[in-house]
Amino acid sequence: EAQRNREQREVRFRVMEEFLKLRGRNETNSARWIAILEEGFTFTLPRTTYRHIVDEDQSQAADSNTSRASLEQVLRGPDA
Fold first, then answer.
1. DSSP 71
2. What residues pair up with 45 in beta bridges, in sequence order?
3. What is the pLDDT of residues 51-80, one digit of tens each?
4. What region does 40 belong to: left with phi over 0, alpha with psi -120 to 50, or beta?
5. How far apart are CA 24 and CA 57, in angstroms?
6. Can you tell me the distance from the alpha carbon of 46 to that of 2, in angstroms, rounded to the nearest whole number?
């Protein structure tokens, strides 16, 4: 059980590491994202005054302090 937990933590760490790399270099190749994310993935960010909200109505209904976007919305960017 302890070994399984360590392995699970390692996999989660590697997925998060890859996620941050892809986001940091503004990766637009959806195949790279799909390889690490589960279907139905939702990206949630704290609401800020300087960040454009992709879907204002949806994010306000979900939580007034967060902005949520699907993978497709994230790849398209805020101006799409």
1. H
2. 67
3. 665 555 554 544 555 666 677 776 776 555
4. left
5. 27
6. 34
**Are the CB atoms for 37 and 63 separated by under 8 Å?**
no
Backbone angles phi, psi at 53, to 5 degrees: -90, 125
Separation of alpha carbons 68 and 62, rounded Å: 8
Compute how many other C-beta atoms are within 10 angstroms of the C-beta atom of residue 68.
17
Task: Enter the pTM of the model.
Answer: 0.59
Distance of CA 6 to the CA centre of its chain: 24
Q: For residue 71, what pLDDT is reported? A: 72
> Could you write out the three-class secondary structure of 20-67?
HHHHHCCCCCHHHHHCCCCCCCEEEEECCCCCCCCCHHHHHHHCCCEE
Bridge partners of residue 67, in order along the sequence: 45
